[in-house]
Every structure is written in structure tokens, then in C-alpha cells.
Amino acid sequence: MVKNKFFLVFSAILFCLSIVIYFIIPNERKLQGTLTVMNFPVQDHNGMVVWGTIGTVFFIACLFCLASGLEKYRARSVIGVIIVFSFLPGILMDAYQETFASGVKAVSYNQEGECYFETVEEDQISGECTFVLHNRSNEEVTFEVEFIDSFYFVEENHKMVSLMNLAGPHKITLEANEKRSIRMTELLDVSKIPNHIDSGSSYGIELKLIQSNGDQVHL
After folding, report:
1. CA 153 to each of CA 2, 29, 124, 150, 159: distance values in angstroms, whole numbers, following the listed order
2. In 3D, which of 108, 141, 145, 144 has the Cα closest to residue 129?
3. Structure confidence by residue, pLDDT tens digits, 89-99
4. CA-closest candidate to residue 54, choices 81, 13, 21
5. Within its chain, how far is the Cα of 38 from the centroid?
6. By CB distance 3.0 to 4.6 Å, which of 7, 55, 177, 211 could disulfide with 69?
7. What is the pLDDT of residue 133?
8. What is the pLDDT of residues 126-166, one digit of tens each?
9. Cβ of 183: how many Cβ atoms within 10 Å?
10. Contacts of 15 (CB under 8 A, 6+ apart)
11. Pair 171, 142: CB distance under 8 Å
12. Strand partners, 47
């Protein structure tokens, strides 16, 4: 079954390096990637993502070495590694948050938040956002939530989800291991905000969590 042990060992090394590189890439660049290959953002609105490109090359090389090192079951093994890599970063992140992470770095978000906006009267918009946060640590954590516009609105110089920040700061405290569905309803004065939307909705909203000590995460 084994054709070349060197290629198999090198494939394992490249796989581990790919995982390490994935966690080096800032989360905001992962979320805003316009071209993604195997979880790696290769390009975003700022151009090429160098670490994402390197990670992609390493992972493809990993698959090539794996296939070259095996005499049988090459296709099955390659497909298996691709499936494992699709889920492994998320599993490792959950494990990190439940063991070593603290503060906002231990807070997870399922990326299923949504916001709705509707014009109430001239220069006033009602905004409602719901999302679920989970503090995976064994300590209470307090932080501010900042709403981030998607790449499309940033590129078009429009504001939508970020309008909720007008009513901020939005401070939240999560107890140890608490998972909570959060709903925010605000009446927003947009008289001084150019290029804002009049109404609409957004799903899979992006959030930034900011702690008083300066720690922050982009989710």
C-alpha cells in the first residue's frame, strides 16, 4: 500500500503547516475573502491574501505528496484528507476556546445573525438585529459589540449593518459557559449619515467584539 514513506511524511508535515497557516490569517480576511480555496482566502477587496495563497499551495502539495506516496487507495485517501481539512479548523477552534482561550477570544458566533431596517420617518430608521453568542470559557466576560458592514456595502461606500453602531456602545456580559440569543432594537438618527440605506435586511452579519483591555475579535 505504501509506495514512498518520504512522500507520506512530507505530506503530513505540509498538512500540519496548512493548519498552522490557516490560524495565522486574521479572521476578518477569511470572512471577507472574494476568492476562497479549501477554507483559505486567496483574494479579498484589498488584493491577494499572501498567507491564504501559501496555505493553498501547501495543501495542494500535501495532496500531491499523499497520492505519490501511496500505491493503492489514492483517490480515497485524497478525498478523506479534503473532508478532514474541511472540518478540522472548526473543531480545533472549539477545543482552543474551551481550554486555553479567555475573554472575547473564548466567545464564538455561529455566523447566523441577521438585521432588519425600516424607515420610520425622514432621517429616522428602526433597526433590529438578532444573533447568538457563546462564551466557552469558565469565566464571565464583558465586551462591546460593533457591527461591521459586508464587503459589498464597504466597496459601494454605503452603510447598512454598521448603522446600529449609532446607538452604541452595545455592552454585553456573558456568564461562564453561557450561550445567549441576543436581540437589539434601536431607533437610529441618520440625518448626518451619507449613503445610508432606507430599508432592507442582512443575513450572516459580521461582528467585532471589543474588550476593555484592548483585546478584540472579528466574527
Report:
1. 52, 16, 20, 6, 6
2. 145
3. 878 877 877 77
4. 21
5. 14
6. 7
7. 93
8. 889 999 999 988 889 999 999 988 765 555 566 778 888 98
9. 9
10. 59, 62, 81, 85
11. yes
12. 44
What is the Cα–Cα distance from 184 to 135, expressed in whole angstroms?
Answer: 19
pLDDT at 130: 92
What the block records as the C-alpha cell of 21 is 497557516
> What are the Cα distances from residue 81, in Å, to 59, 62, 88, 94?
10, 9, 10, 20
Q: How many CB atoms lie within 10 A of CB 138?
A: 11
Q: Is 157 left (phi over 0), alpha (psi -120 to 50) or beta?
A: left
Query: What whole-number distance in Å separates Cα of residue 189 and Cα of residue 123?
Result: 6
Q: What pLDDT, on the 0 to 100 scale, is given for residue 153?
A: 54
Task: Give the list of residues 6+ apart from residue 218 with CB closer than 8 angstroms, or none.
Answer: 26, 27, 28, 31, 148, 206, 207, 208
Residue type, 119: T
Cα(186)–Cα(190) distance, rounded to whole angstroms?
A: 12
Give the Cα separation of 218 and 25 in Å (integer). Answer: 12
